[in-house]
Request: fold
Amino acid sequence: MLKKEFPDLKAIELPSYDIRYSKKANSFKLKLLKDSPHLLKTIRREKKVIESLIDDEHISGIISDNRFGVRHNSIPSVFITHQLRVLSGGTTWLSSKLHQSIISKFEECWVPDHRDLNNLSGDLGHTEKYQSSVKYIGPLSRFKKLNLPKKYKLLVILSGPEPQRTYLQEKLLNELQSYKANVCFVKGIIEAEQLKRVKRNITIYNFMTSQELEIALNESEVVLSRSGYTSIMDYARLEKKAFLIPTPGQFEQEYLSKKFSVEGVAPSCTQKAFEIEMLNDIKNYSGFKNVQYNVNYKKLFSLF
Reply:
């Protein structure tokens, strides 16, 4: 996807964490524990890649988007995350402590959110117990709000690791058989070529580039998607109304969907419980709002 977005920039592939979610939500923590040796091995491998990269490319600074091993002691390294607190049920205190320990190895931690109460990440990105090196840089989004005529009643955007992405795709396509209005359905499968097919009132894409997705978002009345934080920031920038379905067993997404439902911003439900009639609830919610957050980028990047 990055190569498609930035064809003129050099791209270097790091070792993959290869995270796949369990088929059942209650097996999520057990699978993460089982996969932890592979995760630690990958972190060691990516450290070696970074060492050679710094020498070969003369790198003077690093911004790591939740890559634990992408840092180096000889140059300023920043960790960017909205999770100062990592929710994991009864072990939240432990997962948060471990994550904060990783963050502390970086010069700074940039949190893409507002510092004050009018924020998007809630308890995830705001904790009094950990303030070391944290800088709030405001929500980030690649999109702009455009004044375009509405083409779709509903935009469906799928994302995230398998097999849950496929499970949701199959469920939604089945539910949408009784839906009468125009739908744009983006599967979120990155392939060599973009594929498009029209099935009655539903236009289906395997993926969209950023520019195409920006237009589709602006042309749609409401959005149905996962409750991932990147999506939340996009909806706030574009001031969209949305229905959120968290990935089963992913505590972060479950927390965010509940937070915005309680605040009257966007309705949500579990993947298993979703029925197409629930989209009618969207009209009773305010939708996301864009709140300006001024950042002195010259001062922020002076670290490098």
Summary: The chain has eight helices and ten strands. The chain has two domains: 2-136, 152-284.
